[in-house]
Amino acid sequence: MRRIVVFAAAIGAALTYFFDPDRGRRRRAMARDRSAGLARQGTRRLARVGRWGGAEAYGVTRKIRHRKEEPKPQPDDVTLARKVETEIFRSPDVPKGKINVNAVDGVVELRGEADRPEMIQELEDQVRNIPGVRDVRNMLHPPETAAPTTPEQSSS
User: Fold this and answer.
1) Hey, is 138 helix, strand or coil?
2) Which H or E run includes 111?
3) Residue-wise pLDDT tens digits, 107-142
4) Measured between alpha carbons, how far is 11 from 63 in angstroms, rounded to an integer?
5) CB-count burial class (<10 Å; 0-12, 13-18, 19+) for 51
6) Contact 84, 101 (CB under 8 A)
7) Nearest-angstrom CA–CA distance, 114 and 133
8) Which residues contact residue 20 at a Cβ distance below 8 angstroms, ignoring those fewer than 6 apart?
9) DSSP secondary-structure letter at 20?
10) What distance in Å separates the CA atoms of residue 3 and residue 9, rounded to the nearest whole number?
11) Burial class (CB in 10 A: 0-12, 13-18, 19+), 50
12) Rg (the chain; Cα; Å)
């Protein structure tokens, strides 16, 4: 019963507001114009969502289409070498000018001098985890030691 009374009071207040003899005509015109504007704006938004899928719908459709990553082709040797350089030289501890990276048929060759013996193994492990690397020939050596000529010499 109380809801009916509140609802009736709200309707009475709205009627009084819109049918006021002094300002009612202006209030009705403004309400009509604003409701028409909101309707146009809503229509445009719906059209945009239907046409473009909207930002939210676009993201959802992309997630559905690309649920799992498609296998990528093996990058060419130059691209692979640059990718390896980008990964290993991110750390400021890795000496950029002392390490040379080459790639041949997916096999990456690391040559040069690493500052610490532990860094040699860390760099090799890091390179092995890069997509597209089939194998690593590690010929890095610590300072003041002879440069290896084969990967087997560098691990001893």
Assistant:
1) strand
2) strand 107-113
3) 999 999 988 889 999 999 999 999 999 999 999 998
4) 48
5) exposed
6) yes
7) 21
8) 27
9) -
10) 10
11) exposed
12) 35
pLDDT tens digit sequence for 32-82: 999 999 988 888 877 776 665 555 666 666 777 777 777 778 889 999 999
Residue 29: count other Cβ atoms within 10 Å of its Cβ: 10
Q: How far apart are CA 67 and CA 30, in angstroms?
A: 50
Question: What count of other Cβ atoms lies within 10 Å of the Cβ of residue 40?
Answer: 10
CB atoms closer than 10 angstroms to residue 119: 20
User: C-alpha 22: how far from its chain's center?
Assistant: 59
H or E element, residue 32 = helix 24-52
Nearest CA-CA partner of 103 in 84, 124, 81: 81
- Residue 31, SS3 per DSSP: helix
Amino acid at 4: I
> Which tokens go with 12?
């009475």
Report the phi/psi class of residue 125: left, alpha or beta, with left for phi > 0 and alpha for psi in -120 to 50: alpha
Inter-residue contact 117 to 138 (CB < 8 Å): no
Could you tell me the pTM of the whole model? 0.53
Tokens of 59: 């993201």
